[in-house]
């Protein structure tokens, strides 16, 4: 039978038939998607597009973050229409009230379907991937493990990992002339953040810092995460961005199939990492189960989740085995490069502003003196959260100004009416106090743009100035946005980053310890550090774009009383 269905070229008729059917269905779907949606927003002003094929996606998703969108915001206001691929009308929003409305209604404004498929491939069916009741259940089970006191218990791990980085930098710097050397600080910060999440999330030793000089680590999962973000989601060719957008217009099963099977090296690497991550997670879940049975359970996040799962309660309030594995893998990925990239930008600002660096060092040294005077060797939570206000102001200002997460792509599941803080005027002169958005419209929530809103952060929001967080200029209790400094970088509403306290304490310990031990300067050969759009917003050296994520700094040892 099968030979009868064989065409001359050797390709089966069934394959041809299926391909034609897929093409027709996809064409129909595309047509309906482009022609049938976005009508209500066609009169919203926005920039002209030079390319029907790409629309504005290259300006938004590639190159330098904010290069175009900041100008558009000044020209068109908090809501503007931009073109997606193939002429589709889309919305870019920075209006604070609209951003909050959308962020607080995750069922009404869901993740872009293609991002959901990517997140299934990258994380598995865990917290980042889940929607609706599934998400609420997973979030409820996870939340206690991320409470303030739980996270404060990880401070010793953060100290340990910061010390590991400092030792490695010292060994380079101290053997160099003038105790000074140019070091790409991104590499060890990333490995230190990986070690920190391993210890805290599941009491696991990646030994990423220890093995940093080796070509390959003995730990397969650590190998998988070496340069993971850069090698997989780093700067991509235009056509790859186009394909991703195109997949977003096709039925979800097409993108699901693509990400599960595409023989593309980067995607294969993601699939392999997810597999190794899930295998390790499975082993660790078994270990935690045994620890629990023998009454030796620990305080890491996985132990708390396994403990919660074992408690006699409604089975609907538990995580399944696959969800637990995905949760662990999610924490490693979501909690490691994000925080490391934030720290990269903190280091960049400190290196660029010697006065700011000196002022911070003074605060940190005085606090360490107080810590030692009371007989301790490391900062407590209150040292970090309350007694180093300038450190906190620098962290907040960096998260605002150089937030690693700079946008979200959302899609309304129903026709919606979104309130606006500032009215907008349509191309035919109507003044809108609220915005009608049709189901299925692609929305780019511009986190970087929101973080520079003058109504929230002041008239000089385009300037890096940590003092705005010291003088009560930012209304941090307005409840308008994110959990930290009112910035949107940790998102807001029911899907706020669950690990924000973790990131803040880790960044505080790392930064304080780095400035206590070293002085940082921008090397003279570097003309500019670019804010490159990748999965996160990464530092890239102008003229060395092909090297990707890097931040070479002159690192000089400070003679201390340690
Ligand atoms: C600077 C560091 C970080 C930034 C900027 C950041 C940012 C974000 C953002 C914007 C979201 C919302 C994503 C969405 O709505 O799709 C998110 C969610 C999440 N983050 Fe973070 N994150 C950081 C650090 C961490 C850390 C350290 C952890 C874990 C220890 C973590 C775990 C998660 C998880 C599990 C979610 C999913 C939450 C949910 O959907 O309910 N993140 N993060």
Model description:
The chain crosses the membrane at residues 12-31. Its main location: membrane. Keywords: Heme, Iron, Membrane, Metal-binding, Monooxygenase, Oxidoreductase, Transmembrane, Transmembrane helix. Helices cover 49% and strands 12% of the residues. Residues 1-17 have low confidence and may be disordered. 44% of the residues are buried. It has 22 helices and twelve strands. It has a five-stranded mixed β-sheet with strand order 1-2-8-5-3, sandwiched between helices. A three-stranded antiparallel β-sheet has the order 4-12-9. A two-stranded antiparallel ribbon has the order 6-7. With 562 residues, the chain is an alpha+beta fold. The protein is globular. Helix 14 packs across helix 15 (301-310) and helix 16 (321-352) packs across helix 19. The N and C termini lie far apart (81 Å). The chain has helices at residues 13-35, 57-61, 69-76, 96-103, 113-123, 132-142, 148-152, 155-173, 185-202, 220-225, 228-233, 238-249, 252-261, 265-293, 301-310, 321-352, 354-373, 381-385, 389-401, 447-450, 454-457, 500-517; strands spanning 79-83, 89-93, 109-111, 180-184, 407-412, 416-425, 431-437, 443-446, 518-521, 529-533, 537-541, 552-557. A hairpin with a 5-residue loop joins strand 6 and strand 7 (431-437). Protoporphyrin IX containing FE binds at residues 127-128, 139, 330-331, 334-335, 338-339, 342, 404-405, 489-491, 495, 497-499, 502-503.
Structural topology:
Layout: H1 13-35, H2 57-61, H3 69-76, E1 79-83, E2 89-93, H4 96-103, E3 109-111, H5 113-123, H6 132-142, H7 148-152, H8 155-173, E4 180-184, H9 185-202, H10 220-225, H11 228-233, H12 238-249, H13 252-261, H14 265-293, H15 301-310, H16 321-352, H17 354-373, H18 381-385, H19 389-401, E5 407-412, E6 416-425, E7 431-437, E8 443-446, H20 447-450, H21 454-457, H22 500-517, E9 518-521, E10 529-533, E11 537-541, E12 552-557
Parallel strand pairs: 2-8
Antiparallel strand pairs: 1-2, 3-5, 4-12, 5-8, 6-7, 9-12, 10-11
The chain binds protoporphyrin IX containing FE.
